[in-house]
């Protein structure tokens, strides 16, 4: 595709916004812009800055679960930053939004090195945040897409920490995966004065156990790779009848398990797998 650039190509573009002014934002993301940096932005945009950055949560997987605002915004973008899929395949986020994009939108593909050491990850976040700000300063409508909701367990938050809360930034919420899973499995998340905790299964088991003891309801994300541990924990706590698990929610490959005790301990789960627990609801049918 001619409008498809890899992120490394972006850094070969030249523009009159110096790296210095952009780095200033990165090292002090929450600082009020100085008159100097405002002036630099006006210079780059040819007037008061008209460029805008949109971080768009695209929902859990089904294309029609994106918000109306998200779809309308996608249709008018000059540039879209999208995560790279495996082996150069289109990412899930990109597939979700493909039908809403204008053919004129340039696609910038980035790869976030999820398993790399921290310094290498941070270098990529720095470069992507830097590149997006530079394009906004050129007056462009720039989009960044992220699965589910942008503010929950998303790389977008690492970029936000660099960019800061700016007048030219709009964050468009998305349907988070656990809302879609609750709806699809008919498993309530929480009611009345019950408490709900959202956890990553990458946390130490003792912390997960403590949280499960404290709260009535729980969302256990990132269960991929830790299913045997989590299943044993739920069994020890007598919660197996109050838990469901769903993979690839709202996608054609969606699977739901209502009897976790009957699942093979070595079950190979997709990365997009989540468990819901509700102590006040009998989940097994
Ligand atoms: C990096 S987090 C992204 C969360 C996302 N921002 C959200 O709002 O749902 C990835 C985790 O979200 C959950 N997840 C995301 N999409 C899912 C889906 N379609 N079905 C089941 N779980 C999903 C899984 O627990 C997965 O390991």
UniProtKB/TrEMBL annotation:
**Do you know which PROSITE patterns this protein is assigned to?**
SUMT_2
User: Does the record bear Ribonucleoprotein in its keywords?
Assistant: no
Q: Report the enzyme's class at the first EC level.
A: transferase
Q: Which GO terms describe its biological process?
A: cobalamin biosynthetic process; methylation
Query: Which Pfam family is one of this chain's hits?
Result: TP_methylase
Q: Pathway, according to UniProt?
A: Cofactor biosynthesis; adenosylcobalamin biosynthesis
Q: Please indicate if the UniProt record lists Kinase as a keyword.
A: no
Keywords carried by this UniProt record = Cobalamin biosynthesis, Methyltransferase, S-adenosyl-L-methionine, Transferase
- Report the domain of life of the source organism: Bacteria
- Enzyme Commission number(s) from the entry: 2.1.1.-, 2.1.1.130
Tell me the ranges covered by the Tetrapyrrole methylase domain, including all copies.
Answer: 52-257
Quote the InterPro entries the UniProt record gives: 4pyrrol_Mease, 4pyrrol_Methylase_sf, 4pyrrole_Mease_sub1, 4pyrrole_Mease_sub2, CobI/CbiL, CobI/CbiL/CobIJ_dom, Uropor_MeTrfase_CS
Q: Name one GO molecular function term.
A: precorrin-2 C20-methyltransferase activity
Q: Which family does it belong to?
A: Belongs to the precorrin methyltransferase family.
Family annotation (PANTHER family) = COBALT-PRECORRIN-2 C(20)-METHYLTRANSFERASE
Q: What is this protein called?
A: Cobalt-precorrin-2 C20-methyltransferase
